[in-house]
Amino acid sequence: MTVSAFIMPLIAVGVFGWGLYKKVDIFEAFTEGAAENLKTAAGLLPTLCFLMLGVGMLRASGGTEALCLALAPLCQSAGFPPECLPLALLRPVSGSGALSILEGILKEKGPDSFAGRVASVLMGSTETTFYTIAVYFGAAGIEKSRRALLAALAGDVTAFLLSALAVRIFLG
Amino acid sequence: MIGYLLFFMILAATIFSMSAQNMPDLSNAVIAAGSDAVSLCLSLAGAMAVWGGIMKVAERSGLTEKLTRALRPIIGIIFRGIDKNSPALGAIAMNLAANLLGLGNAATPLGIEAMKLLKREENSETATRNMAMLAVMNCCSAEIIPTTVAAMRASCGSAAPMEILPCVAAVSVCSLAAAMLTAEALYIGRKK
């Protein structure tokens, strides 16, 4: 069991307990908050539909794999394992897709191989950037988010470049 | 921006699929996209509703205010020009706390709430510097303990599933710094 397994339940107990101590009608407050967020979630759906259309089509066409094949020589010269390129490309757009690629690399190359370690670090230190940006700005009704996307992608590129380096430094 | 990007993705997929002659797969993907989005939205909606409820209780009982006060020094450095009593600061603090604790599912609804409040506070239809910072921090906020990855490594027979921890921490900090500096640079000379 990990520490993180305790956090969620303890937060729930703590917040409700404190609310009752402070004489808050916790049932009324909870349902009000839940209703607000359900409305927000429903508002997200149109954005998600378009996003999933783009991501789903790109994956189904096999275009991502072809792109990886084309970029493989470039990777090699940067010291980045080419096996991890599909992961690096898919990571910003699809969390579940990236997870399935990670599993493939770990099974094929072994979790303690160089490629396996780099893939693990890459997965652990990055987020689904496009999804996050689309969801955050979509829900708030913000239209122009170009700069935020560029900045977040700069972070992703940094993570890609450093993941292989970090594995070399820390795990030899 | 996102419109052009998505169009490019769809166009590239179609052209590639034509040359690879796997149009039926692509056609299925078009039909599946909507239902994928709905199932993703439903699973997200449940978590969002529960956290919205918990956070409303936290707000009414004054817990949010306490947390905001504790995180104020950090938030004050990153987010500028926001009124001290603004509810946006409270939401950002909660979002930050959830991220630090590695509660991704809790962080999303809190971050969305924070984004909406920032929009109201700064009265802008386009992304401001503060909004960009909030989004960037959520894009780069990796878990302190990457449990999913470690679990997958263990199930694949790794001798030391957690050995990647120092690497993940170092890479996360560097990429967050790079992203925040980029955001800062892109908003130089702008009012907000």
Give the overall shape of chain B, derived from the CA principal axes: globular
- What is the percent of helical residues of chain A? over 70%
Which structural class should the secondary elements of chain A be placed in? Answer: mainly alpha
Distance between the termini of chain A: 29 Å
Give the topology string of chain B: H per helix, E per strand: HHHHHHHH
What Rg of chain B, in angstroms, do the CA atoms define?
Answer: 20 Å
Low-confidence stretches of chain A: none
Number of strands of chain B: 0
Quaternary structure = heterodimer
Strand content of chain B: under 5%
Kindly report the average pLDDT value of chain A: 86
Protein architecture, described:
The complex is a heterodimer of chains A (172) and B (192). Chain A has helices at 4-21, 26-61, 63-78, 85-90, 95-109, 114-125, 129-140, 146-171. Chain A is mainly alpha-helical and 172 residues long. Chain A has a domain at 62-171. In chain A, helix 6 (114-125) runs antiparallel to helix 8. The longest helix of chain A is centred in the N-terminal third of the chain and has 36 residues, at 26-61. Chain A is globular. The mean pLDDT of chain A is 86. Chain B is mostly helical. Chain B has one domain. The longest helix of chain B has 38 residues, at 23-60. Chain B is globular, with a radius of gyration of 20 Å. The mean pLDDT of chain B is 84. Classes of the chains: A mainly alpha (172), B mainly alpha (192). At the A-B interface, helix 1, helix 2, helix 5, helix 6 and helix 7 of A face helix 1, helix 2, helix 5, helix 6 and helix 7 of B.
